[in-house]
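Troubleshooting: if your tokenizer reports a length mismatch, compare your output against this known-good record of 236 residues.
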Amino acid sequence: MLLADTTDWRVKDLFRYIPGVEGPPLAFTVTFPTQSPPATLEQIGEWLLQEGEPFDVEGSDVASLTALPAQFRLPNDGPLAVWIDLDTEVPLVRLIDLLFAISVRAGADVRLTGVGEMTRATLWMRFADEQDRLRIAAALKVAEQRGQREEVAQRLWSVLATLKTGVDLRWDASHERIVEMIEVGTTGGISQEEACWLVENAEPGDVVPRPVEGYLHMVASRWLRDAYPGLTDPNG
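Known-good structure output:
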């Protein structure tokens, strides 16, 4: 099986989830923790205007940008948070420059939920990898429409196999991301307890998908653009 086809994914992708706050399940959350009193919605509006970013106010605690897919939110108990729902067209430098400009005005660090404090470079790498994940998913859908999915999947798998020696990397077709297929309860594998956060009722000997770090989507997407430009070019 060259593409993993998993349907049970109970583990929360922690860098895209903020405990206690209901938000878009695929949105990244950036926070600005500070010892100072939290910013008001009026202050946030002033900061956005000073940065030249148009926005709409929604209720008493949300400022939604109109040119970028981001919402500045005031949680009931916690720091200022930004929900960011990336797509493949978001200008990352513009978005990241805005986040760091707001962090300076708020007197706070920029933190990605589930990861920690970020620099401009590390945040760009995270977001760029996410954009390339989305591009791969879109290209594979086009390949399926054109009857090329099996061919592309075979070649993609061979590329993934070179990225980490001894690691079985696959494209998870259900959740549209690169995963590591790893055996439960074996030396060098994963414990049954940890596996149960990934799939329900995992047993020793099962092979389960585990999310991987390392910006692998950027590498795979680069190959895909070279090998199949007609799948990645919207005019192809």
